[in-house]
Amino acid sequence: MKPPILYSGLALDRSHRLRRDADLAELVARPTARFAPYWRGRQLLSDTPTAVVWLDRDQIPATIDPGQAPCLLLGEDSEGPLLALDISAVPGGEDGPDLRLGQWVGLRSVGSRLPASDAALLAYARGMLVWRDRTRFCCVCGSAVVIADAGHSARCADPDCAALHFPRTDPAIIMLVTDAEGRALLGRQPAWPPGMYSCLAGFVEPGETLEEAVAREVREEAGIQVISAAYAASQPWPFPSSLMIGFTALAEGGPPTADPHEIEDVRWFRRDQVAAFGEFNAPGPDGLFLPSRDSIARVLIERWLEGVLEKPEPNR
Asked: Cα dist. 225→56, 127, 209, 215, 314 in Å?
């Protein structure tokens, strides 16, 4: 079995029964409760080794009441409940509030250096807390919502509406497209650092299958016709709330044409050309480099370079 893609493979018991039946305030008050803190988009990590920092109740800033701040149950281990806690209300300078326990960092900047279990747990915590922060009012009637299920659902406070809301995940497809000559189709968006090329990607639209989304996005972004597509792997991507669904795709050849609204450039590359790509801090000879190592795009490209990425069979 291939090793899990980063941010996946969470081994933690998510404790569905506990979060369904328990009172969050009671869980927070337990002496054995531990908290993974989150502050304005960053998470607290130790330096050596780089790992999750867990706070006991007495290590939480005095200005934060875990019973009132955005908090949710992640799961439990043999020692007790594990919770994610948003302490963004605590003042902090450029480096964040000084808890003297580690550094506040963005997950993507360190994800590839974390143990796989910690990367998966922090991605889970981040995705849930972002949902909590963005789910304050009912999208049906505009009333406030009440958090339930230990932070995993919300209900409209208006009894005449009472709509339920659950954590949002947006499905997005990402594909390593190849042609009969064995070339890979890679493109770049204008917002990316100059020189970075990656797989094409896009969100799944209502009323289409994943395979149809692959074909549509490749046609829209590059003007290339996909012949067939096959599922490869998936990756949680809580930046802010996506599930990246990876595909390989076989396409007709021909010169690609970049969609000027979304894509700055798109090209066919041979294996030897992509193998010469460098990294962000050390580009290749032509100034080109691959996407970051924490992304499924990087996994798809590297598996293609190694010749282990399964090729889709033509549907014809």
From this structure: 55, 34, 17, 7, 12
